[in-house]
Amino acid sequence: MTTARIAILFVLAAIAEIGGAWLVWQAVREARPWWIAGLGVLALGAYGFLAAMQPDANFGRVLAAYGGVFIAGSLAWGVIVDGFTPTTWDVVGASVALVGAAIIILAPGGGASDPA
């Protein structure tokens, strides 16, 4: 259940952060109403709470692992919402980032007992 919880929280955090940033972008760069940016700020705040709900107590590890989810999620958002077509390099880069995120967050013992 913990792995499922981690994955769900990362996906929800990605939706909140990427969606929030996209809403701010829409207001600033695409001349949408400024209240859209306000919604974006609220979504970005929700992202912070979702990230804090991760079971790992190490802020740096959670945010580092989330970085890989953010990279892949940003490209997926672009495809779904903006009609972006990723290059092969985009897909390879996102895949590498996700593997790195999985190594960081799913390592036995969460990496906390490593002597390094």
UniProtKB/TrEMBL annotation:
Entry's transmembrane regions: 7-28, 34-52, 59-80, 92-112
Alphabetized UniProt keyword annotations: Cell membrane, Membrane, Transmembrane, Transmembrane helix
InterPro entries the record matches: EmrE-like (IPR037185), UPF0060 (IPR003844)
Flavoprotein among keywords: no
Record localization: Cell membrane
Record membrane topology: Multi-pass membrane protein
Any GO CC annotation of this UniProt entry: plasma membrane
Family designation: Belongs to the UPF0060 family.
HAMAP family per UniProt: UPF0060
Designated name of the protein: YnfA family protein
